[in-house]
Amino acid sequence: MAEAKDSLAYLTHHDVYPDARIRAILRQVKTIAMVGASAVWRRPSFYAMKYLQKKGFRVIPVNPARAGSEILGETVYGSIADVPCKIDMVDIFRPSEEAYDITKDVIATKDAKAIKVLWMQLSVRNDLAAELAEKAGLMVIMNRCPKIEYARLSGELGWGGINSRIISAKRP
C-alpha cells in the first residue's frame, strides 16, 4: 500500500453530490455487496442492510469473519470474488483506511461481477481509493449512506420531521 501513502490526492468533486446523480444510482442498482455487514442488530450495517432489503434491493453481505453464515436471509461471503452472482454496487462499511485495499479487490473483479458503483458509507472517505476506482471506470460516492439517501430522496425522512430539502404532499 506504499503507493497510497505517497499521494496527497483530495478530490473536491466528492464533497457534494447532485441529487440527480444519487437518485440515478439508486434507481439503476438492484444488487449490492455490503463489505463489513454485521449480524449484530445494533450495528448500523445491519440497519442499512435490512432497510435496503425492504426497499427491494438484494444486499449480499461480505464479511470474512462470518463467511458461510447468514445475515437477514443472505449467505455471507468472505470476499467480493466469492460472491457467485453479478453485483451492481459495492457498499464499503469499513474504516477509511481499509477502503483502498477493498477498492483494489473491487477493481480486480469489476468486469466478472459487472460492478458499476463503489459506495463508501458515512465517515468513510478515501480519495486515493476513489481516484483508483474512477480510473477503472467505476462511479464513486463517498461519505454517504444509501439507506439515508434513499429515505431522503423518497421523502421518508420528512415523515420524521427531518428537513430533506424535498417538498411533496405525496407519499413515495
Features:
globular; two-stranded antiparallel ribbon; disordered N terminus; 172 residues; five-stranded parallel beta sheet
Plain-language structure description:
The chain is an alpha/beta fold and 172 residues long. 38% of the residues lie in helices and 15% in strands. It contains 7 helices and 7 strands, in the order H-H-E-H-E-E-E-E-H-E-H-E-H-H. The chain has helices at residues 2-6, 19-28, 44-54, 96-113, 127-135, 146-154, 156-159; strands at residues 31-35, 58-62, 70-71, 74-75, 89-92, 117-120, 139-141. The protein has a 5-stranded parallel sheet with strand order 2-1-5-6-7, with helices on both faces. Helix 2 crosses helix 6 (146-154) and helix 4 runs parallel beside helix 5 (127-135). It is globular. The N and C termini lie far apart (44 Å). Residues 1-5 have low confidence and may be disordered.
Level of helix content? Answer: 25-40%
Tell me, what's the shape?
globular
Oligomeric state of the chains present here: single chain
Strand arrangement within the widest β-sheet reads: 2-1-5-6-7
Quote the beta fraction.
5-15%
- Poorly predicted sequence stretches spanning 5 or more consecutive residues: 1-5
Distance between the termini: 44 Å
Radius of gyration: 16 Å
Order of helices and strands: HHEHEEEEHEHEHH
Number of DSSP strand runs:
7
Mean pLDDT: 90
Q: Helical stretch count?
A: 7
SSE-based structural type? alpha/beta
Sheet of most strands: 5 strands, parallel
